[in-house]
Amino acid sequence: MTRAEIVVDLAAIRRNVATLKAMAGVAMMTVVKADGYGHGMLESARAAREAGADWLGVATLDEALALRATGDTGRMLCWLTVPADDLAPVLAADIDVTAYTVAELDRIAEAAARAGGAPYRVQLKVDTGLSRGGATLAEWPDVVARARAGEQAGTWRITGIWSHFASSEVPDDPANDEQEKVFEEALAIAADGGLEPEVRHLANSAAAILRPSSRYDLVRCGIASYGLDPAPGLHQVELIPAMTVRAELALVKHVEAGAAVSYGRRWTAAEPTTLGLVPIGYAEGVARRASPGAEVLIEGSRRPIRGTICMDQFVVDLGGDTPAPGSEVLLWGPGTRGEPTAEEWAQATGTISYEIVTRLGGRLSRRHIDSQRETER
Ligand SMILES: *Cc1c(COP(=O)(O)O)cnc(C)c1O
């Protein structure tokens, strides 16, 4: 085994995508931005397509172009451009781009003129209360008018109108009702302005699962596709975490009572014990804040992390046990062998599972397996 690696089960991603699509009953966009939430964008995208993902969603133009470069010819949406971005290659690659403003539509028109081959596909995003990207309701009529003018000029078709929730993981937050109401208003303004989008969409994973009223024509599922619960504890749908993080136990040793462990001497052994050294640290994305609190699984037992997590390594309390150096250390996984889940690490770290899986990097390698097909790719 390798010193430390991420193992991703593509069968789990396929299962989750199929489960979510069947549940939602509308078109499925699998969101594969940020390297597939740390699971590998290209492999995750392929698994999602095999399971019936009608669309792929990414943030940046580069992500969309990378997917096209692998031969994916399906529908694809990106939503985060900056003025310096060259939109022409993205339009030419048959990718739906998102506009928030009249200025952005003007830039798309300019790029379309250079690219030739119009009409292209453009979606509009309205800000219904997240106050992040998207046109406010005050700006919306002008955006709709510019969008319609571009349709009449043959530059593009407005294929979608969409928005994004602020608190969908809290299903009874009244802000969700309010955002749906504003979305309805925006759709009505767009219809009055002559736009007939092919897809209207609002729901991310949590909303797709918890708010049927928000599903419209398409749902955009990120985190749930990877098997992590967007609203921990609500357990509305059966998901399988796709990611396992494992390492090889580097060292085991006995220490006496009073031994202080790791930088800052933040934990001291109250009695004689055994300690294990795990060769992965915050350089790999294992948050320093995860200690105290997080645990790992070694030889079937949970072992608490002791003292400060370092750049390259951390120490666990083996409680007198002496597993052989080289034994497998499971940081997190689906939980089927008793190992912690990414959600447990999120709770120990004071964050959400999204951050736990997406922030991994450093010297970790990543391997894709397929528990259904028993192949490695
Ligand atoms: C990341 C993202 C999603 C996916 O959200 P999840 O909560 O992971 O399902 C959907 N829509 C937009 C606009 C996003 O940025």
Secondary structure topology:
Blueprint: E1 4-9, H1 10-24, E2 27-31, H2 33-37, H3 41-50, E3 55-58, H4 61-69, E4 75-78, H5 88-92, E5 96-99, H6 102-115, E6 120-125, H7 140-152, E7 156-162, H8 174-192, E8 199-203, H9 205-210, E9 218-221, E10 243-248, E11 251-255, E12 260-261, E13 267-268, E14 273-278, E15 295-298, E16 301-306, E17 314-317, E18 328-332, H10 342-349, H11 353-358, E19 365-370, E20 375-376
Parallel strand pairs: 1-19, 2-3, 2-9, 3-4, 4-5, 5-6, 6-7, 7-8, 8-9
Antiparallel strand pairs: 1-10, 10-18, 11-14, 12-13, 14-17, 15-16, 15-18, 16-17, 19-20
The structure holds pyridoxal-5'-phosphate.
Residues 31, 33, 79, 164, 204-206, 220-224, 230 line the site of pyridoxal-5'-phosphate.
Describe this structure in words.
There is one protein chain. It is built from 11 helices and 20 strands. By secondary structure, it is an alpha/beta fold. The protein folds into 2 domains: 10-226, Alanine racemase (TIM Barrel, Alpha-Beta Barrel); 243-376, Lyase, Ornithine Decarboxylase, Chain A, domain 1, CATH 2.40.37. Strand 19 and strand 20 (375-376) form a beta hairpin. The two termini are 16 Å apart. Residues 31, 33, 79, 164, 204-206, 220-224, 230 line the site of pyridoxal-5'-phosphate.
